[in-house]
Amino acid sequence: MMRRSFQVAARLGHRRALLRTPCILPGLDPAAAFGSSTDSLVSRFCPVKTDLKDYALPNASWCPDMLSLYQEFLEKTKSDGWVKLPSFKSNRDHIQGLKLPSGLVAASDKSDWRIFTRCIQVEGQGYEYVIFFHPFKKKSVCLFQPGPYLEGPPGFAHGGSLAAMMDETFSKTAYLAGEGLFTLNLNIRFKNLIPVGSLAVLNVQVEKIEDQKLYMSCITQSRDQETVYAKSSGVFLQWQLEEESSPESL
Amino acid sequence: MMRRSFQVAARLGHRRALLRTPCILPGLDPAAAFGSSTDSLVSRFCPVKTDLKDYALPNASWCPDMLSLYQEFLEKTKSDGWVKLPSFKSNRDHIQGLKLPSGLVAASDKSDWRIFTRCIQVEGQGYEYVIFFHPFKKKSVCLFQPGPYLEGPPGFAHGGSLAAMMDETFSKTAYLAGEGLFTLNLNIRFKNLIPVGSLAVLNVQVEKIEDQKLYMSCITQSRDQETVYAKSSGVFLQWQLEEESSPESL
């Protein structure tokens, strides 16, 4: 099953979509391009009440720049249409009640699964980040502070840690903006090194949704925008998660 | 200083190279393209005796595929020109006695610095990998087994974890093949998801060295080569590390 490539999956998925749902092909309105609206995806993704720990909250390791920009965006959630995304330990927590498309069977043992960008739980040592998403504008801002466990060249973040942060921000944006589920392409041009412990701001924008693919861009900068750390683009494949069967329906 | 971009750095570095060393521009012989030969770089990178822990050694978490391919390549180090690269906790350990080029001042406090791909020290939970390098052929093979802390979609490795593994393998290859020091570009096409706990094999090849840049390609596959997980390319900037001043010379 795993040998089914994304390209084949895209064709199969498209056929399934045609069979199952009204024939709404990706069109001019990204919100209606796929099965679910952005609003319903965001509502489900951001539960009002949950016992799960949200890792995207300020802690003592956050630098002043990160803290103040967080507060700034938090204000914008009240009146400017921005949504602060929660960040749980695993994507399994994010998609409760849903499952991967048929053919992609997830291991279900009792392992301590963690989403990669939350793999280090000691505050300040690994990934510190929070993502804000704007449903109407289809854009995201990620505040990212790499810790000393993310080192590449001495004193600076590993290029791979920024690549992963980009992929994760693209991923959440793609899912909420149009059920983008799998990374097809990631292209990064690195410009400057990010000093460990400092703030990098990722600005992600959905550029278009076409042929079951979301095309996104990202620019990563210092807060004052004077230093560009990297520019990147990402392409994600749209694919609907499936509802998990409830015990009653078995 | 940090606002000096890699592009500007490349020009400055080139000028410095012209002033300091015989004018050997990147040419047909990659080994002689920059300051140090691959053999001398490899010798320094692979100390015969060291007290540092090498994380690229088999442990109980390695799957049978990973173990047997490791043994296969270990045999090739005896007669076929392959070199097993050690993997220390931090790049600071790898470049002892050397430092980043002037202008890139590393933080030097007592933090617990870790190279990103060794950020999780619990065996089997995070990155398990070992890189073999062939100095003459300018290629590398990385055996990579992602653990449950590297999860993206439930049960599968996060795309960003593979991106980081590619960047790290490119990075070590670029350094040893021609003093490639900074990632300029990373372009990845994802084809299939890697199940957590299984083996993925990265085959990296230096394609050319030109204008102070190393151009590399990578294909990531299952061991039987029947499943391609991803294809990628990477461009690295050549730059010489500098000798650290010994106390006597101050």
UniProtKB/TrEMBL annotation, chains A, B:
Residues 155-225 form the Thioesterase domain. One of its GO terms (molecular function) is long-chain fatty acyl-CoA hydrolase activity. It is an enzyme of class 3 (hydrolase). It is found in: Mitochondrion. The lineage of its organism: Eukaryota, Metazoa, Chordata, Craniata, Vertebrata. SUPFAM superfamilies: Thioesterase/thiol ester dehydrase-isomerase. One of its GO terms (biological process) is long-chain fatty-acyl-CoA metabolic process. This is palmitoyl-CoA hydrolase. It comes from the Eukaryota. Its main location: mitochondrion. InterPro entries: HotDog_dom_sf, Thioestr_dom. Pfam families: 4HBT. It catalyses: (5Z,8Z,11Z,14Z)-eicosatetraenoyl-CoA + H2O = (5Z,8Z,11Z,14Z)-eicosatetraenoate + CoA + H(+); (9Z)-octadecenoyl-CoA + H2O = (9Z)-octadecenoate + CoA + H(+); tetradecanoyl-CoA + H2O = tetradecanoate + CoA + H(+); hexadecanoyl-CoA + H2O = hexadecanoate + CoA + H(+). Belongs to the THEM4/THEM5 thioesterase family. It comes from Marmota marmota marmota (Alpine marmot). Keywords: Fatty acid metabolism, Hydrolase, Lipid metabolism, Mitochondrion. Its EC number is 3.1.2.2. One of its GO terms (cellular component) is mitochondrial matrix.
